[in-house]
Amino acid sequence: MSPAPAPTPARRAVSPPDHRIEAVIGHDIDTLWAYRDRGILDEPQAHLVDRHRELVKTQTGVTFYLGLLNRLSSGEFDVDDALFTRIGRTVDQLEDATDARDAAARKVLAALESIEAAAAASAPNAKPLAADDHAALLAISGGAKLYEHLLTGRMSVTAASGTRIPHAKLQRLEDAGLVVRDTDHPVHAGQPVSLTDAGRIALLAARRTPTTQVPKVLARSGTSSSTPAQRR
Fold first, then answer.
1. Strand partners for 146
2. How would you write the chain as a 3-class SS string?
3. What is d(CA 79, CA 179) in angstroms, rounded to the nearest whole number?
4. What sign results for the dihedral spanned by CA atoms 214, 218, 219, 223?
5. Separation between Cα atoms, residue 141 and residue 22, nearest integer Å
6. What is the rounded CA–CA span in Å between residue 176 and residue 170?
7. 130-140 burial string, b = 16+ CB within 10 Å, else e?
8. For residue range 31-52, what is the model confidence (pLDDT) as tens digits?
9. Distance from first CA to last CA of the chain, Å, rounded?
């Protein structure tokens, strides 16, 4: 059998730190990539985006080899020594790709925590958030819109995650200067709601638990420290 083709990097992919990156800088990932290409980010932000691009590239590799392994074990191929050899090689490639992905993730988190620390330090007297306010800001940080029901006239915020936030809560957050609506859009079509600088700082201050470890969703458990040569 011919060797598997090398994975082709995609433009970008969803990664666990995306919402944290968007919350601290105030732009979605696609916008940040575009700003990086145009050279309008400051040095720490540009460094973070570069590390994020590396993470996306390595995640693409993990996805490719995981898909190949699933195909090899699907029953499509004859079960023989050649299949065992190819499965073993693919497992080695998947583990190497995962190691590269985890290393890239640690670099993203290190760059991200540096920016978060700087943002929190710029407002040391930020008021602590109530639990429900924190949940609302966290949901809004991932994208949200205010809608008015055409029949009932009732308004509520729907976040990209599916979370619904009462209009009264939105008004309180607006009054506190933590969120802002884009009133150029009609409410019946959906008014984008986003965090203000104060809202991002308050959200960061509420979750300041620095760690340099890879999130559980990225980390592997029970993996062997053996080398590829030892595994096969």
1. 157, 191
2. CCCCCCCCCCCCCCCCCHHHHHHHHCCCHHHHHHHHHHCCCCHHHHHHHHHHHHHHHHHHHHHHHHHHHHHHCCCCCCCCHHHHHHHHHHHHHHHHHHHHHHHHHHHHHHHHHHHHHHHHHCCCCCCCCCHHHHHHHHHHHCCEEEEECCCCCCEEEEECCCCEEEHHHHHHHHHCCCEEECCCCCCCCCEEEEECHHHHHHHHHHCCCCCCCCCCCCCCCCCCCCCHHHHC
3. 59
4. negative
5. 7
6. 10
7. eeebeebbbbb
8. 889 888 988 888 888 999 999 9
9. 18
Distance, CA of 108 to CA of 17 (rounded, Å): 8
19 pLDDT band (50/70/90 cuts)?
Answer: confident
Largest interatomic CA distance in the chain: 69
| Average pLDDT of the residues in 47-76 | 94
> Is pLDDT of 103 > 80?
yes
Q: Which of 152, 123, 159 is nearest to 138 (CA)?
A: 159
What does 109-146 look like in DSSP terms, one character per residue?
HHHHHHHHHHHHHT-TTPPPPPHHHHHHHHHHHT-EEE
| Angle of the 131-141 helix axis to the 18-25 helix axis, nearest 10 | 100
d(CA 107, CA 151): 50
- pLDDT number for residue 132: 86
pTM flag (> 0.85): no
Structure tokens at 64: 């490719």
Rounded distance between C-alpha atoms, residue 158 and residue 124, angstroms: 31
